[in-house]
Amino acid sequence: MSDRRIAESRNEPIPAIVLLSGGLDSYTAAAIAKAGGFALNALTIFYGQRHATEVESARAVAKALGVLRHQELTVDLRPIGGSSLTAEIDVPHDRDLAAAGIPSTYVPARNTIFLSLALGWAEVLGAFDIVIGVNALDYSGYPDCRPEFIAAFEATANLATRAGVEGARFHVHTPLITMSKADIIKRGMELKLDYSLTHSCYDPVPPGRPCGTCDSCVLRARGFAQAGVPDPLLR
Amino acid sequence: MSDRRIAESRNEPIPAIVLLSGGLDSYTAAAIAKAGGFALNALTIFYGQRHATEVESARAVAKALGVLRHQELTVDLRPIGGSSLTAEIDVPHDRDLAAAGIPSTYVPARNTIFLSLALGWAEVLGAFDIVIGVNALDYSGYPDCRPEFIAAFEATANLATRAGVEGARFHVHTPLITMSKADIIKRGMELKLDYSLTHSCYDPVPPGRPCGTCDSCVLRARGFAQAGVPDPLLR
Asked: How far is A82 from chain B (nearest CA, A)?
């Protein structure tokens, strides 16, 4: 009997790993998982991102969520670069979000790397549920936010691990994947989330104020506008 | 037309990423790839391994191979632990290699993490071939050394990346996967590899001498004995 089924039979919360960036999406995904009965173990990755201030937001969000554990790991991707978030490439501003192509803020293999690290920690903790706040609707077209990528990673995870060989089944939960940004925010409001703790901007203006014009700021602003609530960060 | 096909049509060497640990297997896998016409970009990961001395061997091996680039990345897995290579757990010695189960030297999700990092760098370089020296014959039963894991990762890689979306196809090459350790060593001899540069021991005795009794030392010794050549490390 797997640890998960033992926990279920005892009505104990089921442990899950949640990738927590400090942004609005991962906070909401984590809160949805918590509301669904998972006990949260938050994982935040410092990868040399331009907006590393989001790691401080992740700490505040983890505290607000009351996670069991908050683990930070560092894998500095700046030596390989290839993205405006990790190399000396300008972040695009006022971009046409409907334009074809994947913007320079795409970080090669980022979610594969993040999910791999989450998988390693999950196996050590005996957790078989991984939560990630990817979204394939109001997003920048990143390939590693799509359901087909998530399904492929899940299949890989079950073959990659001792736990998988021994019969456990890892599940990658993507509660936001088909939601609009407005619906994500509305769900967060229902869950009484404090979005003033979050950070979304890719290219913050010192001392950490959102630029207002990168994809991430634009998607956030549009989401709050469509949800009909003010963004507490902009108060 | 992909960069790879352009290179092929020009008879240029095709760039590949090779995961280079400093051990005997990854050195041989890299040399086989080089002999097959690939231009090598070596990636070595410091993950907080007990036998971090292997990273120095990786530098020597990269030099001997004449790689185009040698990139080292750090992702310290000690905070998540769960392995005798990354946590305060004793490495098993004089273990029965035929015994059931996966030993404590298994590092959760290690090859998934390593291949993800290789994938990120590959995409940045415009390389679509990744070489890894996994072996599913003379090995410790690690799940992420099996062909089914490699196939699943390859499928994930093609869905994870911008290059994949744009039509490139990543290939993960495992030239050693069905070879015995003796055959790997014989192939290395044909390729005139200098195995004195390598490091295999999981639990080296200061100042870096192989213990002789961990799985890795035992498999190496058996391989050299069956190949009928002396191990230059033990001269």
From this structure: 5
